[in-house]
């Protein structure tokens, strides 16, 4: 029979594993991004500026100075049943969240709320690199001074 290590050996090994686990700090900009939760915030964004792409629709609004927010930038995600069943909607939202995590820390402006709306078939199937380029272009259009609303 193989010999088992002593209980003391297990404790020291687990302590070293715990000590070896290091959680990296998030970048400053990423920590200033919060998720929209209230319906009223989504409705306000829907009435403001928008930029459509083939993969998604970006809605954005600059918050009033009197509005209190938990973060400098807030982002919301929505995918209707037109996208498909729950599996397809969740996959579309996961892709939109990954897209926002990658692009918004560098391109988002403080004091703005953004909503990414998924499009049927395109949000799930469009290549991620193209969606990333689309989001950069949509943010430029939304932040342009000549945008409507």
UniProtKB/TrEMBL annotation:
EC category name: hydrolase
Listed GO CC annotations: ribonuclease P complex
Keyword ATP-binding attributed: no
Lineage top rank: taxon: Bacteria
Pfam families in UniProt: Ribonuclease_P
Quaternary organization: Consists of a catalytic RNA component (M1 or rnpB) and a protein subunit.
Protein name: Ribonuclease P protein component
